[in-house]
Amino acid sequence: MTYNELKEQENQYVMNTYGRFAIAMDHGEGAQLWDAEGKRYIDLTSGIGVCCLGYNNEKIIDAITQQAHKLMHVSNLFTTEPMVQVAKTLVEQTGMGKVFFSNSGAESNEGMIKLARKYSYDKYGEGRAEIVTLYNSFHGRTVTTLKATGQDKFHQYFFPFTEGFAYAKANDFESVKAAVNAHTCAVMMELIQGEGGVMPLDQEFVKQVAAYCRENDLLLLVDEVQTGIGRTGSLFCFQQYGIQPDVVSMAKGLGGGVPIGAVMASKTCENVLGPGTHATTFGGTPMICAAANAVLSEVTQPEFLQSVREKGEYFKKQLLAMGADKIQDVRGMGLMVGIVVDPEERAALVAEIMDKGVLVLTAGTNVIRLLPPLSISYEEIDEALAVMKTVFCK
User: What is the torsion angle, in degrees rounded to the nearest 10, for the CA atoms of residue 40, residue 45, residue 49 and residue 53?
Assistant: First the structure.
């Protein structure tokens, strides 16, 4: 079907909840996509950080196919090998404790919030359930994770929101301390605020917050939905900050293109969620975990993570070397890159870049965000950079 034919049916049958680009995707290979009309694109979005090993990845497809023939899904009332293996790998790679499986980032953050509140309830009783998050954060689209998100523009329409959240300024330790009170049970943050504009937190600030949480028996919750699974050049971003969180959430790249999320708790709180306290029908389902195992077998390799760091530095260096007035700054870690531009020009710049065959994302009010497949080749990077140069330097 052509784009126009698909769009006509979409308008008739699909809720209009997304500001979609005027493109209908058909198939992909590596870090490239083709639309319904056959136009080719270099993809610097990877499904918003999901397709971390690119498209038509044989290892992932083979893992899914083999497991589908064997067992696609079974109730969580039973144990399955793929689920256990994913958890084992995550724990062994991080020194954490145990894992709960979910289906998405928002679901993982919900589970993390529940764990923190139950930890405090078990130890201190009622009344100690508030969680401090950071302004400019983003934690999901459910009623609870919207409230956890530190941006007023998301606190609309869906009243009443779940209560029990306070907000502090990023990179301002005194602001965090001021937001904590006798009712606080945890501090929750992204180490790089992705949707907020690809804003890495300061190392010293993160370490101060981690130490303060330890001293006051507050759980440190780290949202790694976007930064995890190799995106920043380590399996998890927290590993580059020199901290050990109490709880970590993840999703996006973990499945390499299929829906999976997880909550990983340290040994300090690995047994907080017992039978009957949390559950989900599809969490840890065998076919999806088979894909996750295939992803982890790649992204846990030191040489692979080193290549992510090197490609990210190459991206930043080449973008800055353009000397383009339209580029105000380039920031990020690994292959999570933010190009700061004039907010008044951003929409036109994005439209032109995409029209020339390179797919990009936005973040915050003035950032063009790049989240390419971690397996992107230097030839594909150079092709994308050449296109962006014609747009930024004209």
Answer: 30
Q: From CA 369, how far away is CA 359, in angstroms rounded?
A: 10
- H/E element, 146: helix 143-148
Expressed in percent and rounded to 5, the helix, strand and coil fractions of the chain are 40, 20, 40
What confidence tens digit (pLDDT) does each residue in 129-170 have? 999 999 999 999 999 999 999 999 999 999 999 999 999 999
Report the DSSP pairing between strands 247-250 and 130-134. unpaired
Q: What is the pTM of this model?
A: 0.98
Residues 32-41 have pLDDT tens digits of: 999 999 999 9
Q: Could you give the CA distance from residue 244 to residue 239 in angstroms, rounded to a whole number?
A: 8
Residues 6+ away with beta carbon under 8 Å from 331: 198, 199, 200, 316, 337, 338, 340
| 134/175 Cα distance (integer angstroms) | 10
Judge contact between 34 and 26, C-beta under 8 A: yes
Q: Are 233 and 240 in contact (CB under 8 A)?
A: yes
The C-alpha atoms of residue 46 and residue 51 are separated, in whole angstroms, by: 5
- Which residues have CB under 8 Å from 11's CB, separation 6+? none
pLDDT value for 394: 86
For helices 286-299 and 302-321, the axis angle rounded to 10 degrees is 70
> For residue 165, what are the β-bridge partners?
131
DSSP-assigned letter for residue 226: T
Nearby residues of 313 by Cβ (< 8 Å), 6 or more positions away: none
* HEC readout, 307-318: HHHHHHHHHHHH
Name the E strands within the chain: 25-29, 32-35, 40-43, 98-102, 130-134, 165-168, 184-189, 192-193, 199-200, 219-223, 247-250, 261-265, 329-333, 336-340, 358-359, 361-363, 367-370
Q: In the structure encoding, which two tokens stand for residue 124, read together?
A: 């201190």
Site of tokens 């920043």: 232
User: Which CA distances in Å does 96 have to 145, 229, 245, 252, 381?
Assistant: 24, 15, 9, 20, 35
Query: Using an 8 Å Cβ cutoff, are 370 and 360 in contact?
Result: yes
DSSP 228: T
Phi, psi angle pair for 48, to nearest 5°: 60, 55
Contact between residue 103 and residue 136 where contact means Cβ atoms under 8 Å apart? no
